[in-house]
Amino acid sequence: MDAIGYIRISKKDQSTHSLEYQEKAILEYCQRNQIMLASLFIDDGESSYTFDRPDYQALEKFIKGNKGKAKIKYLIVFDHDRFSRNLPEALQKIESLEKRYGLKVIATSEPLDIDTQDPSVFLLRAFKYLIANQELLTIRKRAKVSARHAQESGRYINLAPYGYINHKEQGGKMIIKIDPIKQPIVQKIYRDFLAGVPKFMISKEAKELGFPHSGNSAIHRILINPLYAGLVRVSAGVNMPEKLVKGLHERMVTESQYYRAQELLGLNKRTMQTKPKDEFPLKGILKSPCCNTNMTAGWSKGKKNYYLYYRCINHSNLNISGQKVHDAFDLLIKELSFNQKAIDHLISRVTGLAKSTLQISEQRKKVLNAQLKAIDAKIENVENKLFDGTIIDHTYKRWMIKYEGEKAKLKEDFDLSQRLESDLHGELQLMPYLMNMPKILLDSSLAQKHAILHQVFKQGLTFKEGSFRTPSINVEFGHKLLILKEKGLLFLEQPSDFSEAIPSCGERGIRTPGPVTVNSFQDCRIRPLCQLSAAKVRS
Questions:
Q1: Nearest to 103 by CA among 133, 42, 62
Q2: Domain-located, residue 316
Q3: Model's pTM, two decimal places?
Q4: Is residue 285 part of a domain?
Q5: Which domain holds residue 418?
């Protein structure tokens, strides 16, 4: 047993290579290199972003089960994007297979004796997976944009909810149509709820009429679904809130009934339509100024509108206006920037890595050029043999298929190297953007914002008297502290109970009941508290 093969195709990644084509390429590769293919695992329609795929899991189980029995040396894939399109997971998985089982992952475009420990091989593979990952993200983005456009036009594109059925129009586009048997049940659910009938009774009577789901949550899902009112929910996008639009399908209840139901459920018509998902961006970052615990966030109803507040978990009377905090935070973020020394250092490192990568790419292109010339020479030789009558037509076709296949793969690798150079130049041009902290935060998702803010303000932020306070700030932004303090945006200070936690001392190290006073947290990091107090006593 020398090798096992793995082929995959996804319904979403728009692969141009069928399972049959991949299998044929792997079989030919094994035949060419005189290795025996013990088994072939096929994932049909599975995503490339995770290794949680049925047949890949079976593949790993097979490898584990044969460990020590029959040596498997190679895992052959048609191309690395068939193995995975997730850069970090792919590289970790390859390393794990090599270390645990001594198994080498090889694409049909790679030589059997490829040195996977060679830095240039690792770098080339990394960029292959990076490009595959970028292609996957592009496909996903395109699908997301397409779905949003369909939603904005009033078209519901997912599996029809209870009471509707999916229907394909003459032009091939999908639409939902009313199921006349289930429609009266949905309408009764709305009528009863608006009449004040308890949910458990609505559920019981609906089930007697044929409603297949049990429990109050099933009734709740019917009541909050705007599709029944002829509306389609358009998902939130970048700088675009969630909203409801008029649908192309027929409604079962009126908009008035739907919105009355939302009011009874404790929801507000306006917030249901426009409330974005990341409405509490500082939740998990903002700490209570009184007890230093994480603050929670929520909406409070005023006379006419709902208002956002951050609240202390331990002290219910401490509420901070979300609008006020967010406005102050926007001003704070606008002032954050890297110092020039850090920028120069980062640009130097990236430029150095880019140069070394481009050198490797140039060397690789030279090798590929030489291999392409060699293949062209072989093709010309076979053609000459056909013209001379040395070989017959069948033999000519067999050799030409082999050489043309090898030539096509070499061209693909050559094109990949060229794209690599183009991508690197593009990344270098993005450096000014990467240095722009306010722009990065503006373009980031909520999870990304939190990851960045936790690095900038490792111990969180408090908001008091219109200004932010923090025990420490990332050293890369230390040069901005004076400006932030002068503008009243940010102050460095310890939490209110800090002086009680650390005893102070007098000139000779004797503990004194008085609190320690420091000018800045930076001073505390430079000198011990007792020395600092002693110095103040001497002065």
A1: 62
A2: no
A3: 0.34
A4: no
A5: 340-435
Single out the residue of 334, 345, 338 nearest to residue 475, CA to CA. Answer: 338
Between β-strands 306-311 and 319-321, what pairing exists: parallel, antiparallel or unpaired? antiparallel
- Count structural domains, the chain: 4
DSSP secondary structure letters along 404-425: HHHHHHHHHHHHHHHHHHHHHH
pLDDT in tens, the chain (539 residues): 588 888 887 765 555 568 888 888 889 888 888 888 888 888 876 665 567 777 888 888 888 877 766 678 888 888 777 777 665 677 777 777 888 888 888 888 888 887 777 766 666 666 666 666 666 566 666 666 666 677 778 888 788 999 999 988 877 788 899 999 999 999 999 998 888 788 888 888 899 999 998 877 899 999 999 999 998 888 766 555 667 888 889 999 988 888 888 888 874 444 333 333 567 888 888 999 888 888 888 877 777 777 888 988 888 788 899 899 999 998 988 888 777 776 677 677 767 766 776 777 778 788 888 888 998 898 888 888 888 888 887 788 778 777 877 877 787 777 766 666 666 665 566 566 556 777 777 777 676 677 788 888 888 899 998 999 999 888 878 888 888 899 999 998 865 444 333 333 333 333 334 443 333 333 333 333 233 333 333 33
- DSSP readout, 114-166? --TTSHHHHHHHHHHHHHHHHHHHHHHHHHHHHHHHHHHTT---S---TTEEE
Query: How long a stretch of residues is the chain?
Result: 539
Instruction: Identify the residue whose tokens are 């007098």.
Output: 506
- 360 in the same domain as 239: no
Q: Within this chain, do residues 141 and 172 fall inside the same structural domain, yes or no? A: no
